[in-house]
Design goal:
Layout: H1 6-14, E1 19-20, H2 35-58, H3 62-65, H4 86-110, H5 122-134, H6 140-149, E2 154-155, E3 160-161, H7 162-177, E4 213-214, H8 216-223, H9 242-247
Parallel strand pairs: 1-4
Antiparallel strand pairs: 2-3
Helix pairs in contact: 2-4, 5-7, 7-8
The structure holds 2-acetamido-2-deoxy-beta-D-glucopyranose (NAG) (2 copies).
One 2-acetamido-2-deoxy-beta-D-glucopyranose binds near residues 191, 195 and 207.
Organism: Quercus lobata (Valley oak)
Pfam families: Ferritin_2
InterPro entries: Pigment-catalase-like
Length: about 250
Amino acid sequence: MARPSLFCAFLFILTLEVSLVMGAPTNCGPIQATDIDRIEFSLNLEFLEAEFFLNGALGRGLDSFAPSFAKGGPPPIGARRAILNPLAAQIIEEFGYQEIGHLRAIISATGGIPRPQLDLSAQNFANFINQALGVEAGQDAVIRTLLYERANEIVLPYGKTVAEFVNRTAELKNRLANCGIKDEGIIVPQSLGAENRTNSNILSANTDSLSYARTPPEILRIVYGTGSENKPGGFYPNGAGGNIARRYLSPA
Ligand SMILES: *[C@@H]1O[C@H](CO)[C@@H](O)[C@H](O)[C@H]1NC(C)=O
Ligand SMILES: *[C@@H]1O[C@H](CO)[C@@H](O)[C@H](O)[C@H]1NC(C)=O
């Protein structure tokens, strides 16, 4: 199976850093949870991002910089240093350090949770990318700008342009989350552009150009790659940590 370029992998990870909808019952509506549980839920994504950026840029992860943050959770599976151009390497290294800061802030406020088992293997990314291509064949803005500049380049080995890639990964996330359009490509029909007037779409946002928000279950459906908050997989082979994620993992 083709290995995805790191480029594609970034698309997937970066657009996960979304504001969480706080506050019930349908599959797309707000959920009931304490503030602490909500903040700890966000640690799942912070761990993923920290490990992905640090390992991608430097070839070593959180255990090299702040081992106590993992609270005994296992190291990620399959994390590797990526081949990056100097600009990308610098940006990703900076993002990695920023994630350490986010983790520190949250852990000192809430006490934290053990790092969940993460799967950052090329095979896992390939599964997501193949799913994205197969079916219907602040940080985020920086990366989307870089991507936009390269929108017409072909991503090897897939033979798709960067713009198509962003579109397909956005479509996959929308499909997995199952709550409408909340992620968009970087080149879009004007109906998704700013004020229905642009095809460029550096910021993915709603009809009032406000950022989309996703609830914790929507996020779990995406990062598990299964479309179900009850079925772990994808980046979290054993499920995400903390009270919110665990409540959906009741024994089948
Ligand atoms: C993906 O591209 C198609 C064709 O331009 C468009 O109709 C669709 O809205 C795009 N999807 C997203 C999520 O940007
Ligand atoms: C843009 O078009 C959509 C329908 O595609 C409409 O609902 C929305 O109000 C329009 N926005 C503006 C600012 O005209």
